[in-house]
């Protein structure tokens, strides 16, 4: 019994620890990749995403993603962004994204226009998301602007239909890290093994490269990956505020924060 009790104390009682990045990335005053908890990113979308913020709390969020791909009046939205600090008194770093439709976004225009809008909004951001599938000459406009402004790049890839093999996921993560300081992949899970593939690839790449990552299994089957992903090396948790979900399988930020505090 004594030996069993000793084993309980040394092994069974240990808490889970997530894999931290060896080379963390700072977005505003938030360091992504280190610390006990992952970075909690509240994501807002809509014809005017700022309207969501009037009636919803950002409590528990470290980062705010403003999705541009559903905005209707970009010039008006830009004017509102310029006065956002006084209007909403936000004290949180901003990640700006204009997701293409092929990767689960809602932007309906041409690629040139999508990138033009994204670049024009970067002056209000602390970080920018750009898909690695974007044509090189357009992607480079975003990367060059980010370098000029000294803001972080989240280089991303999304497959809204399937999850490939582990090696393919690994390669996509590596390609993301070639373009950005933070690499992000998201795949739709069609079965439980799909979730395991994403988690394993994330774990392996994090161990090898030591840079901040985000790896997600989308959809109802993969929803729990958003909770356990940080244990396997995923550094950012995206969660909606309000009722406007930006991706399938998301869990509200208040619930995510509570779960994270219980398991990490």
How are the secondary structure elements laid out?
Elements: H1 2-12, E1 25-27, E2 30-32, E3 39-44, H2 49-55, E4 63-67, H3 74-82, H4 84-88, E5 94-97, H5 111-121, E6 127-131, H6 136-149, E7 152-159, H7 166-179, E8 182-188, H8 192-209, E9 213-218, H9 225-228, E10 236-240, H10 253-263
Parallel strand pairs: 3-4, 3-10, 4-5, 5-6, 6-7, 7-8, 8-9
Antiparallel strand pairs: 1-2
Structure keywords:
10 strands; two-stranded antiparallel sheet; 10 helices; disordered N terminus; alpha/beta; TIM Barrel; 264 residues; eight-stranded parallel β-sheet; single chain
Describe what you observe in this structure:
This protein has 264 residues and is of the alpha/beta class. The protein has a single domain (26-263), classed as TIM Barrel, CATH 3.20.20. Helix content is 39%, strand content 20%. It contains 10 helices and 10 strands. The protein has helices at 2-12, 49-55, 74-82, 84-88, 111-121, 136-149, 166-179, 192-209, 225-228, 253-263, and strands at residues 25-27, 30-32, 39-44, 63-67, 94-97, 127-131, 152-159, 182-188, 213-218, 236-240. The strands form 2 sheets. It has an 8-stranded parallel β-sheet with strand order 9-8-7-6-5-4-3-10. Helix 7 links the parallel strand 7 (152-159) and strand 8. The longest helix has 18 residues, at 192-209. It is globular, with a radius of gyration of 19 Å. The protein starts with a helix and ends with a helix. 41% of the residues are buried. Residues 1-9 have low confidence and may be disordered.
């Amino acid at each position: 019994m004594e030996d069993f009790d000793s084993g309980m104390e040394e092994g069974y009682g240990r808490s889970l620890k997530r894999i931290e990045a060896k080379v963390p990335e700072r977005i505003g005053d938030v360091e992504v990749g280190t610390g006990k908890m992952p970075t909690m990113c509240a994501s807002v979308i809509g014809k005017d995403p700022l309207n969501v913020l009037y009636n919803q709390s950002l409590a528990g969020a470290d980062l705010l993603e403003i999705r541009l791909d559903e905005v209707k009046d970009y010039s008006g939205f830009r004017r509102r962004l310029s006065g956002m600090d006084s209007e909403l008194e936000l004290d949180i770093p901003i990640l700006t994204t204009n997701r293409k439709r092929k990767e689960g976004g809602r932007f309906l225009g041409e690629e040139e226009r999508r990138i033009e809008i994204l670049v024009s909004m970067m002056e209000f951001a602390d970080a920018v998301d750009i898909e690695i599938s974007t044509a090189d000459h357009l992607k480079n406009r975003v990367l060059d602007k980010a370098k000029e402004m000294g803001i972080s790049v989240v280089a991303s890839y999304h497959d809204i239909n399937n999850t490939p093999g582990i090696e393919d996921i690994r390669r996509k993560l590596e390609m993301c890290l070639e373009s950005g300081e933070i690499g992000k992949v998201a795949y739709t899970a069609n079965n439980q093994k799909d979730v395991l593939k994403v988690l394993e690839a994330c774990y392996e790449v994090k161990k090898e490269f030591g840079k901040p990552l985000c790896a997600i299994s989308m959809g109802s089957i993969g929803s729990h990956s958003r909770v356990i992903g940080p244990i396997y090396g995923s550094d950012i948790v995206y969660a909606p505020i309000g009722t406007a979900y930006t991706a399938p399988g998301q869990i509200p930020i208040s619930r995510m924060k509570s779960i994270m505090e219980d398991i990490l």
